[in-house]
From TrEMBL:
Its EC number is 1.-.-.-. Residues 1-363 form the FMN hydroxy acid dehydrogenase domain. GO terms for molecular function: oxidoreductase activity. This is Alpha-hydroxy acid oxidase. The keyword Metal-binding does not apply. The keyword Plastid does not apply. It holds the Pfam family FMN_dh. Its cofactor is FMN. PROSITE patterns: FMN_HYDROXY_ACID_DH_1, FMN_HYDROXY_ACID_DH_2. It comes from Actinophytocola glycyrrhizae. InterPro entries: Aldolase_TIM (IPR013785), Alpha-hydoxy_acid_DH_FMN (IPR012133), FMN-dep_DH (IPR000262), FMN_HAD (IPR037396), FMN_hydac_DH_AS (IPR008259). Belongs to the FMN-dependent alpha-hydroxy acid dehydrogenase family.
Amino acid sequence: MTRDEPLTVADIARLAQARLPRELWDYVAGGSGAETTLAANRAALDEVAVLSRVLAGTTEPDSATRLLGSASSMPLAVAPMAYQRLLHPDGEFAAAEAAQAAGVPYVVSTLASVSVEEIAKTGATTWFQLYWLRSPGVVESLVARAEDAGCEALMVTVDVPVMGRRLRDARNSFVLPDDVVAAHLTDGAVGRAHDRVPGSSAIAAHTAAVFAPGLGWPDIEWLRDRTSLPLVLKGILDPRDAVRAAESGVDAVVVSNHGGRQLDGAAPSILALPAVAEALTGRAAVYLDSGISTGTDILRALASGADGVLVGRPVLYGLAADGARGVGRVLSLLTEEFRAAMTLAGCTDIAAVRALSTVRTVRAS
């Protein structure tokens, strides 16, 4: 980074926007439809007010925890995100290396532009995210590859029966450059992500060709029987689905609206979190995704019932701004902010954060 060292994720986002072509910035920052859920995620997080505790007698809070058995320096994992080589030549390598240095898990996407085997060589603690594909053989192969690569959990994304209508990408006729590919997928449909069609997204065309829209609970139960790895479902908003997940042997759920990129009009994740956490008490871990961009957001999430969070776009901003160093700066800022928030809220450790109470505020219009 050639400018003064950024002090917030928002600073890094501005650096990324200045460096990226408009269509790439739109791909990263955009949402679906009118982007109402994208905006609502941020607004809802800002309305969560924490009731801090006092006289806790702490000066050095302990942010370390375990996420599904994986050791983590803080209650955060890097969310699964596709095609990271779009943003920097080192792509997933750089992001995973930064996660390893920060001591947090890194979730490898099915649509990664570097293979899980290569990413594992960074030494990062890895989980593997699975999109359900039309070919059962490819699904089974990906599970086996993740296990053989040493991944410590499997995360199934369940809120993409079809890709949401992402209007920025359609207006930009967005395509992947020839040198960025889905490293885990090699069938003939892969080329669709590189074919420009005016007024449409090539990535949407590719996913429509390879994703299976009919994913159901029997598939989750099949996967539970197929692997001994901890199993996570990402994309849960309704407590009834959370309960069904626990009954199906799932170890954790991620309360998520896909960062506002799927159903426009879906509830902000932070609003859905308390009911899901209450429904799963003692039955499965609960993580939050969609909109986390500050250490205070992490505090808010844990005080609202989460065991940890997934962070997505901020990592991509760091990657675009300065590769592994940029991602490292994002993770360092979030760690610094979270530990400061813990101290100010009177929390010595993660258990104390989760015991905090919250109220909701309404911002003046």
